[in-house]
Write a structure and sequence with these properties.
alpha/beta; Isopropylmalate Dehydrogenase
């Protein structure tokens, strides 16, 4: 695999573990996978070898000797574990700047360090539920889905929740035929474009226990899910289900599909975090650029202690590079 552009890493909340895991990821990857950190150099751990650059392409020259940094000054210092409202607007501005750079072709892909939505809302009136929705907005209202991918387990696991950050009591209303169709379509397109899977196999979990067990435990599977999936199979999608979620994630079952579409958040995230808690990657499918993220939050409780594990960020960077290369053909 050859690359002539780096991945760009937006700094995220500087009071979280983002700066620490970026420095650790560079120590592991160096010139093998050049990336540029976009943020305030003062927020990186003391002693981090860094090289301030003016253009992301310069990272290809310097990644072997120092962490390439595209400076973006923040108004306040970063105190580990204590988010400062004064920095909220700058965190948002970094994401916007990173998206502009990737869309302009100055970087191969975007990997985002964790943000804290409440801190951004309190400090800058951030109006989006999270990174995914904000990136879709910056991309002009793109239709997107969130995929969590773990390549450590064998077979690997990719899961896509059709509904995300809503109460469980609201899932049955939000999970509609249109939502399921759109989720499957975006997932299939993303697997073809970004993972080079020509005919992606998608398994769909039922909403109810045992996929409704013939209507005894719920009727969504009978009333409309089967019709949706039959219609998509007629269109050429390699889709199976609705399947009982409790038997979808053991190794033999995972070998039969390339991604699993689930009805709600925990149905998708519990298996992937159980199988590979440290190596999971958050991928946004449907954007006009590649975006990945470590599958964890700001971890304020351990920020600044040196205990943060960079494994998920490293996995996110590797996946971003592969996806960006696949998308470029």
């Amino acid at each position: 695999m050859t690359r002539d552009l780096p991945v760009i890493v937006s700094c995220g909340d500087p009071s979280g573990i983002g700066p620490e895991i970026a420095a650790k990821a560079w120590e592991v990857l160096g010139a093998a996978l050049p990336f540029v950190w976009l943020g305030d150099p003062a927020h990186l751990p003391k002693g981090t070898p860094l090289r301030e650059i003016a253009d992301p392409a310069e990272a290809m020259l310097h990644a072997g000797s120092a962490l390439p940094v595209l400076p973006h000054p923040f108004p306040a210092a970063a105190i580990p574990g204590q988010p400062d409202p004064a920095n909220a607007a700058a965190v948002i501005a970094v994401i916007e700047r990173a998206v502009r750079l990737v869309q302009a072709g100055a970087a191969l892909a975007l990997t985002t360090a964790p943000i804290h939505k409440k801190a951004l809302k309190d400090g800058a009136g951030f109006a989006f539920p999270g990174h995914t929705e904000f990136l879709a907005h910056l991309a002009g209202g793109a239709e997107v889905v969130m995929m969590l991918a773990a390549e450590g387990p064998q077979p690997p696991l990719r899961v896509v929740p059709a509904t995300i950050h809503i109460a469980l009591a609201d899932v049955s209303r939000a999970f509609t035929p249109e939502v399921l169709r759109d989720t499957i379509r975006i997932t299939a397109e993303g697997l073809r474009r970004d993972f080079a899977i020509d005919n992606p196999r998608i398994a769909v979990a039922g909403l109810n226990p045992h996929a409704g067990e013939g209507g005894a435990m719920g009727r969504e599977e009978i009333d409309w899910m089967r019709d949706v999936l039959e219609g998509m199979r007629a269109e050429g999608f390699a889709v199976s289900g609705p399947l009982p979620a409790d038997t979808m994630f053991h190794p033999a079952a995972r070998a039969r599909y390339d991604a699993a579409v689930c009805a709600y958040h925990d149905q998708a995230l519990i298996p992937i975090k159980t199988l590979d808690f440290d190596g999971g990657v958050n991928v946004t499918l449907g954007l006009p650029f590649v975006r990945t993220s470590p599958d964890h939050g700001t971890a304020y409780d351990i920020a600044g202690t040196g205990r943060a594990d960079p494994a998920s960020l490293i996995a996110a960077l590797k996946m971003a590079a592969r996806m960006g290369t696949a998308r470029r053909g």
